[in-house]
Amino acid sequence: MKKALSLLMALILVMGVLAACGPKRETGESKPEDTKKKTEEAAKPDKLVVWVNNEDKQKQALQDIFAKYTEKTGIKVEAVPMDMLDQVKTLALDGPAGKGPDLFFQPHDRIGSIVLQGLADPVDLGDAKGDYIDTAVDAVTYDGKVWGAPLVVETYGTFYNKDLVDKAPETMDELMEIAKNQTDASKDKYGFLMEAANFYFSYPFFAANGGYVFKKDNGSYDVNDIGLNNDGAKKGGELIGSWFKNGYIPVEVNPDIMNGLFTKGNTAVVITGPWNIPTYKDALGDKLGTATLPKIDGKIPQSFVGVKSWMLSSYSKNKEWATDLMKFVTNQENSLHYFEVAGEMPANKAALEDDKVTSDQLIAAFAEQVKYGEPMPSAPEMQQVWEPINNALAFIAKGQPVGDVLDEAVKAIKDNIAASK
Amino acid sequence: MSTYSEGKKKGHNPTLAMILSILLAGLGQLYNRRFIKGIIFIILEVSFILTLGNFINYGLWGIRTLGTIPMVDHSIFLIIYGLVSIIILAFAITIYIYNVIDARKQAFKIQRGEKIPNIREAIRNTWDKGFPYIFVTPGLIMLLFIVVLPILFTVTLAFTNYNLYNSPPRKLLNWVGFDNFHKLVTIDVWKDTFFHVFAWTIVWTVVATTLQIALGLFLALLVNDPRIKFKRLIRTVLILPWAVPAFVTILIFAAMFNDKFGSINRDILSMFHLSIPWLQDPFWTKVALIMIQTWLGFPFVFALFTGVLQSISKDWYEAADVDGGSRWQKFKFITMPHIFYATAPLLIMQYAGNFNNFNIIYLFNQGGPAVRGQNGAGGTDILISWVYNLTFNINQYNMAAAVSIILGIIVCLFAFFQFRRTRSFKEEGNI
């Protein structure tokens, strides 16, 4: 009898589940958001909430800028510190719950996946669009729309030790000469080191010969056209492979080892990013010099440029004013202030060309290199690229045939993109 | 029976009571003339429907459809509402079934003419019988929401198409049934990696754990030998690897094993003119990982066994000596059974722990080195580090959830086995 009873109950439950019907609401044309937008267009909010990267100097710089904004408009700005890389997943939960920010801060290569998740709204930069350097605007453009106001640009370049070389190597041939003359692995002496098996740093050598990640036209990427195993890419791969084959760069190099050898004065030239300047300067002092990447075929190769920008949460209720705030933070005066306090290169054109940036010998080289750089692809498919191509570089470092390895990598990337959809 | 015949109510119908209770909780009780109980049931049902009815309706609709309008419906939230609704509903149904059964039982009692307890007696009965349940209930409810809900959530994700290209709030999720599991074993990209990683996970678990137990046992026996001096010092030294946080140890080992710059090749093996590619060759990376895990894991086993060894009575060995038992026989028939009966559950959990030992794999070499022709996981990735990769590097939440379920099932098998061993320990421990 008990069994029959519970069976009956189960039946009632199932009927209940089937009968459960959704909330009544209007579908189609008049989405709730649209009406919201219209009514709240120009209303001035009491405060704006901004998620800032949790780093002391950056917080301090932004605190000053936000204070100025409050003075100017009377809108309070609440800065919530949160690690940049945690912001997206927190927003995915907090946004719908109404606890999200108006603005958040992200590196541009995540824009594609943020857009796919529907977390950000396109930004109308208006006249201010021309104030940023082209690479930066390019970087925050995805699918033909602009998704952020760029604050910071970042790329890598050449560091050299003035005790070991008189001047920075201007061409690849000069660099190879240095590597040939100064490398003595048994004594831990190296002419030239870089994380050559990391695609982020190796990209210029592919690009200089005609390699590319995704074909780009009209601000969008064709992810089916991958240029990492074309002739140019293979030529770049051969070049990188030759460094390992000739023993210029050991297979086992990693950032710790590279930094250790360079700061000890055992390495003449390294290719890495400006985030290493403080450490290097402490160790080498005036002996430290920086320059753009050495020329290949008479041209400075394209390095990957990273752009950090303010993005507009799609859950923000004050989009107009939030956009105004992000333009304010990234204007010439404020992004210069940010550079002075936080030490990150401004994406604002006038600020990047300002004396304060160009007179800093070490930074100037990177500001120059940015002009030749190319933004990392922001297509979400980029996520599927890193691992196969880095693996391919690791195989190249071990002396495997470059052509085969790159073909395999491209096939893996295509497989991964197909499998992930 | 005849004593009750006076109060017997022929007209009282248990089926009617049952049907009334099914229609509305408490009606049957009213029919049974148990007014207070009936009213309590009615209040419970009505208030349940009034306060939670909408929520449950919404929740069930949500988990069935996963939303209909993108950007308005958030599938992930709908899944959670749905799961909460189901849990609440399960409680409600339990009480409802109790209500119906109760109505029927009481009706039978009335039909037989049994004496109805008055209110005070009823309350006392409930208190006496239900005391433990009354106190366990709040904890049980907490447990459901803190432990069971997240597990259910992971399980449900494995049956959706939740990945980067299909993430809420912009897109709605869909139920895809066993598609993800099917993909895992049929589509080449997933299949090759999955089986490769799975095979190494098993080898890693068995070899690394067995070695650490063997080494722990060997050292425990050695140190416990009465002829050994400075026992305390030796024990302290042997416990040391346990004292340093594994996190730190592994990172230091990773530096020491560096093929060119690490001290192992440079200072130790160079004496023998050897240089082993510890981080570049998958085989040697595996060897290094197993050695490190043995080093990290044996102190615990050593401490465990030392403790048990102390507790074996000397009489056993004396008796064995009298019977002329050899050293091996003493070990095999006295020491071994004692040690393993006492520690089997913990040793099994050592295996389970290593099966999911994310730290060492990830910190040592990020699952590397890469293997040509193998896509998505490095040469030493175990299932759990692969899941990490799937979740955080390529946002394949659904596949990660599917692999997690498989992992969960395997660890459950370990746990199940452990409980079995625990019982055997209870019954046979007093050899």
Structural class of chain B: mainly alpha
Q: What is the distance, rounded to the nearest whole angstrom, between the alpha carbons of the first and last residues of chain B?
A: 53 Å
At the fourth level of CATH, the homologous superfamily of the largest domain in chain A is Periplasmic binding protein-like II
Second CATH tier, the architecture of the largest domain in chain A: 3-Layer(aba) Sandwich
Characterize the main sheet of chain B: none
State the total count of DSSP E strands of chain B.
0
Assigned CATH architecture of the largest domain in chain B: Orthogonal Bundle
Count up the domains of chain B: 2
Helix proportion range of chain B:
over 70%
Helices of chain A, by number, come to 18
Largest interface: A-B, 53 and 53 residues
For the CA atoms, what is the radius of gyration of chain A? 26 Å
- Over the alpha carbons, how many angstroms does the gyration radius of chain B reach? 31 Å
Low-confidence region ranges of chain B: 1-7
CATH topology of the largest domain in chain B: MetI-like fold
Q: Estimate the strand proportion of chain B.
A: under 5%
The rough form of chain A would be described as globular
Strand content of chain A: 15-25%
CATH C-level class of the largest domain in chain A: Alpha Beta
Number of helices of chain B: 16
Protein name (chain A): Maltodextrin-binding protein
Signal peptide (chain A): 1-19
Region (Disordered) (chain A): 23-42
Keywords (chain A): Cell membrane, Lipoprotein, Membrane, Signal, Sugar transport, Transport
